[in-house]
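Tutorial, part two.
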Amino acid sequence: MDKTQKLENLHKKWIAECQCELKKTATQAVPGVGNAEAEIVFIGEAPGKSEDEKGEPFVGAAGKFLDEMLAEIKLRRENIYITNIVKYRPPNNRDPLPEEKASCREWLLEELKIISPKLIIFLGRHAMNNFFPDQQISGAHGKLLIKPFKGMSTKYFFSLYHPAAALYDGSMRETLMEDFKKIPKVLEEIEKRQKNK
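Running the prediction step on this input gives:
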């Protein structure tokens, strides 16, 4: 069974089994999408209105902005995998609650295990704090974080501001674009580290 098939099966299983309270208010689950062989996985916070309607992550305004930034570094959606820490839309796009994150956590970890990317990129503080609870996004953005996690092959992480936040704040937008342009160099750095093991 290839990784694409494994991911499809995983999503089917979790759509049936996930106990997230948000299931009651959301239209549908929004599992991750993209290349099952991707070197880079982007993790956002939770689906918004457009995502809830379409059943796909990052298809609204923030998603369009993300596509623009990907194009800047010569990447397309087909090259990456994108998911959220919470797979159901919180009412009125409020922040996901700790118990909502916890009920979707296994689903996310299993996605990451199957794909086994070189680099995991956090879009916003919620995604980052899911793995690095003590970090502040204001200090961690644009920097390579290295930390092994039990049961996960990936240990390289990179934090960005969330594209949705940058849409409303011009100065944050520039910072996000600058950080985004570092991604190819970050991948080179990881390759060097892996060779020198």
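The chain has one domain: 3-195. In part three we will examine how such features are distributed along the chain.
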